[in-house]
Amino acid sequence: MSVETYLTMEAPPMPYVLECGRAEYEPGDQHPSRSGLAVFDLLVVEEGALYIGEEDRQWEIGPGHLLLLLPGRYHYPVKPCVERTVFYWVHFDTAGRYAEFRGGDVRVRGPRRGDEPGWHAWFAPRTLRLPKSGPLRFPEEAFRLLQQLSDASARGRFVSLWSDQQRFIELIQLLEDGGWTGSGANVWKVAERIEAYVKLHYTSDITNQSLSEALHFHPNYLLRCMKAAFGCTPLHFLHRYRIEQAKLLLVNTDLRVADIAERVGFPNAPYFTNRFKREVGETPLQFRRRFHEREEMERS
Q1: In which domain, by residue range, is 267 found?
Q2: What is the pLDDT of residues 133-159, one digit of tens each?
């Protein structure tokens, strides 16, 4: 039984395309071996089959299937093509953070802007979820966009910069839709229901039991869904979201720390201060002071 693997990417910033091409291999040809590629490499097979490995994993990619190779990983041919093979390749990158999940566990986390646990749960207003490999859900539309991207790359990147980015985002949207199948889709949807509930009720006294009663799932199932989708527990997400809201009040109002703690749902000011310092690395007052000092420097 295959283990579901997918990638999450924070957005914004949105991933952006660098170049795209169409390649044809004859029997005996094979994909090059390399380990220094610093960008994502999306492979989509139109005809035949590619046999590709990444580190300790190997795939056979048939017609209408994709494989998303990660930056900085060792990629190599498992064996040469046995028939004429036609495929598209797309090199793209993202300034945001990303993570690869295999069977619900984080296996690779992108070296972008830190490595704090659960970053993708609150630092981005949206999290893209892309399949690592598998069939295209909308192959005709995907191949149309790939052909357009390939043709534009052959003519010159600067001429079609904006249209290429638009086509690429459409392609990413198709790939993301294609990942919503099977039990993994249910896990992600339940996690998003938890996220929405927390953001709506974060000022209230939320517990695992109250979440369970509100969403009609067992607490352990809610825990598994959040760990698989966001890499954190529901209550950890709640605390971090409360702190993000507290940051906004600290920099945009003159409210006392005790009043802010009450507004965002913490039971008292000392507990809020301890949680804030644990998550942010400084107390609420230090955070407010540093922000206003930076503002004064920018004005002068």
Answers
A1: 184-299
A2: 999 988 999 999 999 999 988 776 666
Which letter does DSSP use for residue 31 in this model? P
43-100: pLDDT as tens digits: 999 999 999 999 999 999 999 999 999 999 999 999 999 999 999 999 999 988 888 8
User: Residue 7: beta bridge partners?
Assistant: 100, 130
Task: Please check whether residue 39 is in contact with residue 78, taking contact to mean a CB–CB distance below 8 angstroms.
Answer: no
Question: Residue 122: what are its φ and ψ, rounded to 5°?
Answer: -140, -15
251 is written with which tokens? Answer: 């920099």
Say whether both 169 and 29 belong to one domain.
Answer: yes
Residues 12 and 151 in one domain: yes
Helix spans in the chain (H): 139-155, 161-178, 182-201, 208-215, 219-230, 234-252, 257-263, 269-280, 284-299
For the entire predicted model, the pTM comes to 0.64
The enclosing H or E element of 89 equals: strand 85-93
